[in-house]
Amino acid sequence: MELIRKALLISVLVTVAGCNPGPEPEVVVEAEDIEPIDFDLDAIIARGSLRVIIDNSSTGYFVYKGQPMGYEYDLLDRYAREIGVGLEFHLTTNLDQTFDLLNLGVGDIIAYSLTVTKGRKEKVAFTQSHIQARQMLIQRKPDNWRNLKRHEIEQGLIRNPNELIGKKVHVRLGSAYASRLANLSDELGDDIEVIEDFQEASTEEIIQMVADGNIDFTIADEHVAMVNATYHQNIDVKTPVSFPQNIAWAVRKNSPKLLESLNNWIDVMKKKPDYYVIFNKYFKNPKTHLARARSDYSNISGSKISPYDDLIIKAAQELGWDWKLLAAQVYQESNFNPRAKSWAGAVGLMQLVPRTGMAYGVTDLENPEKSIEAGTKHIKWLNRYWKEKVPDSLERVKFILASYNVGQGHVLDAYRLAEQNLEDSDNWETVSKFLLKKSEEKYYRDPVVKYGYCHCEEPVQYVENIFELYDHYSTLMATDSTAASS
Region 100-110: what's the mean pLDDT? Predict the structure, then answer.
């Protein structure tokens, strides 16, 4: 509580994934140094989740065609699986406050592309570097560059840092770029006008400003600059303003076990082909970058999760669900492929078997509208089935999803087992425990079990996957005012 009482000076909105979706909580932090909370690896594992401070960018963390992606995200997902925990994501673009949020415990790790500097080492402990990168000048090519020869384009660009003297270079507030430009000014013996006027904008947003002609120059790390050059063909990113510098993640200085664990994992990971597959996926394939950048289904450039958002929103309104939750279920079922077919004969976006579709008057399950119509009707039926047994609406959604996957009979068996063992039968966590036990003879032969043996890991994982994906959508996608809230 002392930390909260101290935190009076600066207010920042941080979006939390993995917690309770809904309005963004206001986290208040102090501009002065904050004593880091005592919360190391053992406590993180006991809590069951690693809290990550990250930015929404094409190299950090984003959603594309319904799937969470990003260089930082892919690495973090692998590390979290290694230590057996989930991930919670906290978005902020304010670099100065990022370190305070870490020490307050809002996050356990800063997974930005942070340049390691002496000043930052006083605030946080850095992991070993996972990238080395030069800082590059971002500038626009001449307006008529498409009609110019290469040497004519070169004549209109800065290649010698001396030419930056007297020029205005805009950078993020609190970034390492400002200190590097200050050092460069000292080296050149004259002033570069460094303007730190973007507190809440990401590096990619500032690069966009250069491309749009709103500002003339900014700085970015080389790997980020190269990716953005594929999006904005009118910018040049070939002029370095620094030697290669270490890029790393950061943890609290009083988290030595977490730091050691991350360093050991990074050391092993960097020797695996998988690491280079991830790196190349985001930094070495310009055509793929360009496709993601221009897609309506990337939250970086668009506002849609799938081509079927309008149908999903309409159906979610009928159900009283947040549409992003229903979208997560559709992705889990079919990856938004209306022609998807399962080994069991399920068809379409909502993966219903023809017999179930016909029960709701639908025969063409490959038709997206008809598939969602039938799936919605089935969810409504399952809601009526569970309403009296599970009064809490959020818990009931989990029962509905599991029943949608494996059938309500197996879930009802687990419900009865929980009742018989005098446990909380309307709590999904409890019932899912008994659902997993239905592969054990002691339980599937119990007289209260009517539907027999079930290898039920799949429905339990199904529910978990949908809510995890829903968390990603809730964090990264703008809330649609037409969608109902659950």
Answer: 96
Beta bridge partners of 221: 135
pLDDT at residue 27 is higher than 80: no
Model confidence at 21: pLDDT above 50: no
With 80 as the cut, is the pLDDT of residue 5 above it? no
Q: What percent of the chain has pLDDT over 70?
A: 91
Neighbouring C-beta atoms of residue 47, cutoff 10 Å = 14
82 is catalytic: no
Q: Which amino acid is at 208?
A: Q
Q: Are 429 and 392 in contact (CB under 8 A)?
A: no
**In angstroms, what is the C-alpha Rg of the chain?**
26
pLDDT of residue 293: 73
pLDDT tens track for 30-76: 445 688 999 999 999 999 999 999 999 888 999 999 999 999 999 99
Residue of 79, 90, 91, 3 whose CA lies nearest to 45? 79
CA atoms within 13 A on the CB side of 315: 25
pLDDT at 289 > cutoff 80: no
* 227 neighbors 283 (Cβ within 8 angstroms): yes
The dihedral over CA atoms of 179, 182, 187, 188, expressed in degrees to the nearest 10, equals: 140
Which one of 333, 419, 423, 457 is the catalytic residue?
333
| Tokens 């939390």 -> residue | 16
Angle at 69 between CA 11 and CA 26, to 5 degrees: 15
Q: Are 228 and 235 in contact (CB under 8 A)?
A: yes
310: number of CA atoms within 13 Å, CB side? 2
- Amino acid making up residue 227: V
Cβ proximity of 414 and 438 under 8 Å: yes
Contact 273, 150 (CB under 8 A): no
pTM: 0.84
Read off the pLDDT of residues 106-157 as tens digits, 9 standing for 90 and up: 999 999 888 999 999 999 999 999 899 999 999 999 999 999 999 999 999 9
Place of tokens 């699986």: 81
- The letter for the amino acid at 20 is N
* Three-state helix/strand/coil letters over 217-264: EEEEEHHHHHHHHHHCCCEEEEEECCCCEEEEEEECCCCHHHHHHHHH
Work out the number of other CB atoms within 10 angstroms of the CB of residue 44: 21
Place of tokens 């016909």: 358
For CA atoms 79, 85, 88, 94, the dihedral sign is negative
**Cβ neighbourhood burial of 359 (10 Å; 0-12, 13-18, 19+):** middle
Helices (H) and strands (E) in the chain, counts: 21, 16
Contact indicator for 140, 238 with CB cutoff of 8 Å: no
**Whole-number pLDDT of residue 404:** 97
- Paired with 136 in beta bridges are 220, 240
For residue 276, CA distances in Å to 57, 229, 271, 289, 334 come to 20, 21, 9, 16, 29
